[in-house]
Write a structure and sequence with these properties.
Number of domains of chain B: 2
Largest interface: A-B, 50 and 52 residues
Oligomer: heterodimer
Distance between the termini of chain A: 29 Å
Order of helices and strands of chain B: HHEHEEHEHEHEEEHEEEHHHHHHH
Largest sheet of chain A: 7 strands, mixed
Helix content of chain A: 40-55%
Radius of gyration of chain A: 32 Å
Shape of chain B: elongated
Structural class of chain B: alpha+beta
Chain lengths: 410, 440
């Protein structure tokens, strides 16, 4: 197909052709960036937690009256929960992965360094690693004799008595690699304050923070052997078989309520719900973006249909003359298809430049990474396809113009 | 003349129904998308206290005991600084605020215990923030001083417990303390829940929690601290608090102070007072930085905390870009429409119609399309807002189309289509009469 006649025709329709090109360019730029944003959100929602999410339940209890012995209370509750049929393991934790609220600490490599090396989250509680199904890649799990009661530790912190503080910790692989790149982290010391020194005894494959807002720091996690007392904000974490979750949750809540009818269960949910809740904004945003991208492509397609129909109507006589001079229906069809392809290509090239500009703006204002090059061909193919689909109807109508039109005056 | 153009426009629109429908649809979709996000933006970024916000300020001091020139004041204050500043009563009105959760039971009401949010505050809170009452009144400054066991409850809680009846004088049990209801609020839903805003710069743009509902129970500050002793959470601590020490004496920040200052002179006075207080505390050895005080106004404080969620801002940009594309579309289609009628325009020009008349006629037609698009856009906006309301975000129940946004829908639709019609109308008005007649 010769494109020179098409170009010379378009030169006579500079304004309309220009408008169409601009529309395609803008659509291309926005679609590229929106698809990229959707990808970002979906990727975030897939963030690994490192725990066996489909087998875990969370129950959060608020005691109205502080129990006489809050440690005994926890042991009683845990014993009670282990009795519930279907419960495989129970842990008591200050926080849960993707739970939102979190306890964090600055980590020092040298007790005297002025600035912290990184900020990591701290999980406290017994049985955590085994119950949540966290995989250890090196070293050992925390042992009962590592554990220190939280009140004793707090007192130790005040008096500066490091004997009553915990001495060991588990950390994640990511955090180990960040602190001691390329080294075996086992046996290394890290410090939370100049007197809280913890020896790394185990390395976890992965355990995500409760407040994993930033993917780059989401795995900076420690598990510290502190025995927690019954207090606000603590959670029982229960492991069971995936298919037993609903009945086990109901039975566990009933057992806790029976033990003390006065207390209030503030949260009871599966870990699937925890993840769902944590990422609900991302899911909503991804949904909105999908809606906008589709609407945008539909509107652009409608615009192409409108302008192409106009051109076809305007050129009925010319088409008739060409047909009378021997052009086949296929020639006419291809003419309009090629014309659209040309316009779309120019629009796409402009759109790429614009997409890059928009991405720069977003990078500045919304802390987004650079748009990967893969999104450019995706946007281009999408718009070429949309253009061809949209122009097909008008082009077929043009091809159907009979040669006899050439002989009529209007 | 206008009526005639309108008639012409209607005829022209009827002649090519498909093209007309395409244009109306393009405008409607563009307007629908942008009005949905603009409405959300308008509701979230609005002034929660119109007419009063200019007089509301948020004093901040820096109780950090270590000298550090880069240290910024925390988003809340320690108990001592907040109560010192409050009890000086140097502003026209002043209120301490801090929130906590506790258990509530209503004797004589057959409901299980509830966990409710309680705002500990002082009597000025209600008149200062123009909080509306349905029954009863706020407690008095006397109640603040005498730690009276009184509370004000929200309309929602009153409905839940008492079916919306006048419950003033009834008793509630908060944790282990009996309190008397002295006031019931009328429905009150400030957007955002401005008096609790703090820590927004650490939220990573995810600030929709600032749009949650106000607390269900309001209690005098000193009474609330006794009733829910141990139930308050610090915003942050600069060193670990000792075991068994009350939060009031702990090295933690957890209380906010709001003040109302009615004139510029009073604002300047209060800034001096705040600086003087910091100086004095430095002399006492409690503060390390004496010159690190701030006092943003309410709106500046909301800005500082980036209260409008970044997702909402991103959506607004997206919607505006969308509208822009719809406009390009519209320009193209109008151009097609007008130039297709070049013959008819040529006849009108030959019969004596001026450039201006043709131009006006084309614009009337564009405006009419805009108006139709506006109706479609309004319907689509309602659908869009319904979708936003069904999302699990704190501000979902706030979302509605108010009168100003309803009017803006049509203004925007007509203005956008007139703008889009400008270029095609100019082109149409340039049609030469003779040429078209010949060709026709």
């Amino acid at each position: 197909m010769d494109i020179l006649p098409i170009l010379s025709t378009l030169r006579r329709h500079k304004l309309t052709a220009g408008l169409l090109i601009m529309e395609i360019a803008l659509t291309c730029a926005i679609v590229c960036n929106a698809v990229f944003l959707i990808g970002q959100r979906l990727h975030r929602m897939d963030m690994p937690s490192g725990v066996v999410e489909h087998q875990l339940l969370q129950i959060q209890v608020a005691d109205v009256v502080k129990p006489v012995n809050p440690y005994a209370r926890v042991q009683e509750d845990m014993a009670l929960l282990r009795q519930v049929p279907g419960v495989q393991s129970v842990a008591f934790s200050n926080q849960v992965p993707f739970g939102g609220s979190s306890s964090n600490a600055g980590v020092l490599l040298d007790p005297n360094q002025p600035q912290r090396t990184l900020n990591g989250t701290t999980y406290f509680g017994e049985n955590l690693v085994s119950t949540m199904g966290v995989r250890l890649v090196a070293g050992r799990d925390l042992r009962p004799d590592d554990f220190v009661d939280v009140d004793v530790a707090l007192k130790g912190l005040q008096t500066g008595d490091s004997k009553s503080l915990p001495h060991v910790t588990l950390i994640t692989r990511t955090m180990a690699e960040r602190l001691w790149p390329g080294q075996n982290p086992l046996g290394h010391m890290l410090y939370l304050t100049p007197i809280v020194g913890l020896r790394v005894v185990g390395v976890m494959d992965s355990l995500v923070r409760p407040n994993a807002y930033d993917a780059s720091t989401a795995q900076y996690t420690m598990v510290i052997p502190l025995r927690m007392s019954a207090d606000k904000g603590m959670s029982y974490v229960i492991r069971t078989r995936a298919q037993d979750r609903a009945p086990v949750l109901a039975a566990a809540v009933a057992a806790l309520k029976k033990a003390d009818p006065q207390r209030i269960i503030t949260t009871q949910r599966t870990f699937d719900d925890v993840r769902d809740h944590f990422f609900r904004d991302d899911r909503a945003m991804a949904g909105i973006l999908v809606g906008v991208v589709s609407a945008l492509l539909v509107v652009t397609a409608l615009g192409i249909v409108g302008l192409a129909s106009f051109w076809v109507a305007q050129r009925r006589r010319t088409i008739g003359v060409r047909r009378a001079l021997g052009a086949t229906r296929g020639n006419i069809l291809h003419y309009f298809q090629t014309e659209n392809f040309l316009l779309a290509t120019i629009g796409i090239v402009l759109g790429m430049v614009l997409a890059y500009g928009i991405n720069l703006f977003l990078m500045q204002h919304y802390e987004l990474p650079r748009l990967p090059a893969i999104y450019f061909p995706v946007g281009a193919v999408a718009l070429w396809l949309i253009g061809q689909v949209a122009v097909l109807g008008p082009a077929l109508r043009a091809a159907a113009v009979p040669p006899v039109v050439a002989t009529r005056s209007v | 003349m206008f009526a005639y153009y309108l008639d012409l426009a209607l005829r022209s629109l009827k002649r090519n129904k498909v093209l007309t429908a395409l244009m109306v649809l393009a405008i409607a979709v563009g307007i629908g998308a942008s009005m949905t996000t603009l409405t959300v933006m308008h509701l979230l970024s609005g002034d929660p206290l119109p007419g009063r916000s200019g007089q509301i300020f948020y004093p901040q001091v820096d109780p950090y005991p270590t000298p550090d020139p880069r240290h910024q004041p925390w988003d809340m204050m320690d108990y001592r600084s907040a109560t010192d500043l409050w009890s000086a009563h140097r502003a026209d009105r002043q209120a301490l605020v801090t929130g906590s959760a506790l258990r509530l039971t209503a004797p004589g009401v057959n409901l299980p215990p509830l966990m409710v949010q309680m705002l500990a505050t002082t009597s000025d809170f209600f008149p200062m923030f123009r909080v509306p009452f349905r029954y009863g009144n706020a407690w008095t400054a006397q109640d603040d001083a005498s730690r009276a066991r009184v509370v004000v409850i929200s309309d929602a809680l009153n409905r839940k417990l008492f079916g919306g009846a006048n419950s003033v004088g009834r008793t509630l049990r908060l944790k282990d303390t009996d309190v008397r209801i002295v006031g019931v609020l009328a429905p009150w839903r400030p957007s955002p829940q401005f008096y609790d805003v703090a820590g927004g710069r650490f939220a990573g743009g995810d600030t929709s929690a600032f749009y949650s509902k106000p607390e269900d129970v309001f209690a005098p500050f000193a009474s609330a601290l006794e009733i829910n002793d141990g139930g308050f959470q610090p915003f942050t601590c600069w060193q670990p608090p000792e075991e068994g020490v009350k939060l009031q004496n702990a090295p933690c920040v957890w209380v906010a102070l709001w003040v109302q200052l009615d004139s510029a002179a009073k604002v300047a006075d209060y800034r001096r007072f705040l600086a003087g207080y910091a100086q004095q505390q430095k002399a006492l050895g409690r503060f390390a930085q004496a010159d690190n005080t701030r006092m943003p106004g309410l709106m500046a404080w909301l800005d500082f905390n980036h209260v409008v969620p970044s997702d909402v801002r991103l959506q607004s940009w997206l919607a505006l870009a969308f509208l822009l594309i719809c406009l390009f579309n519209m320009v193209g289609l109008l151009l097609a429409k007008f130039l297709r009628r070049a013959g008819e325009i040529g006849v009108r020009r030959a019969l004596g119609a001026s450039h201006r008349a043709i131009f006006a006629q084309c614009l009337v037609e564009a405006g009419l399309i805009g108006l139709l698009g506006g109706v479609g856009g309004w319907l689509l906006t309602l659908v869009g807002l319904w979708l936003v309301r069904s999302q699990p975000v704190e501000y979902a129940d706030l979302v509605h189309l108010d009168l100003s946004m309803f009017a803006l829908t049509f203004v925007l639709a007509v203005a956008a289509s007139l703008l889009a019609g400008l270029l095609p109308a100019l082109r149409a008005a340039r049609v030469a009469p003779a040429l078209q007649l010949k060709a026709g």
